[in-house]
Amino acid sequence: CVASQIRRSRSGPTAKPNGGRMVVSASEVTVVEARVCRYNARTSSGWVFAPGCFAASLERRMPRLLLSHDWDQSVGQAISFSDTDEHLDMVFELDDFERVPAAGLASLALQSGEFAEFSVGFHPVSERPSDDGRTLTFLEAELFEISATKKGAVPLTALLELSTGPAPESEEAARLARMRVAGVLSSDEYHRRVDLDRDIDSALATVRRLTAKAEFDDYCNTGAEEERSRRELRFARFDPAWDPVEWWTKRREDDR
Fold it and tell me: Which partner from 37, 78, 226, 233 sits 20 to 30 angstroms from 136, CA to CA?
């Protein structure tokens, strides 16, 4: 499963009842992997989704995750997908449970099996009726949302995995996690770069501590300057002889 590539725990979400509300630690994220559509599978109403019918739409935007096609219960965001000739699988990150209580309820409903299937919210762009008029095949469609449901129209949609783990510690860590989910990074490369990102955080903290704090804060008060520092440190690869004060002093001299 794709979600298992970034899974920290198999125990499931840690949301717990708290006075009628669902809460989860702000340091955790919940990831849902689901088979949201099977291609060439006829619904009871005679609809069929052709392989690749959502491809163009997915290039433009990633859909939201809803409960039962209710936009008042928008609970998560798609972060990656796998589109084959047989089916469309998607990975979602649920919204923060404290900020969006419905996301916590969605997590429990998925975990308990109350919502065991999925349904696509779409607008047809191109379609082809069968000669006998009994089947309508959607050749292209705009995909707006995916809904967790008790009963989906397309047969054999399913929850593939529900997992929870620590939230990324920085924007770079979040970017790396999404690259890992999408299969851009191998497991070894992902962990190497996450470790490097943590080292960079430590190095910047060391520079800040060993130099004039006010000067450092003033110099790095923009996202562009901070990213420049992080980029330089990434290329430095942390030579054992690297000295944070020397690096900082040279940086300031070069900029003058």
Answer: 78
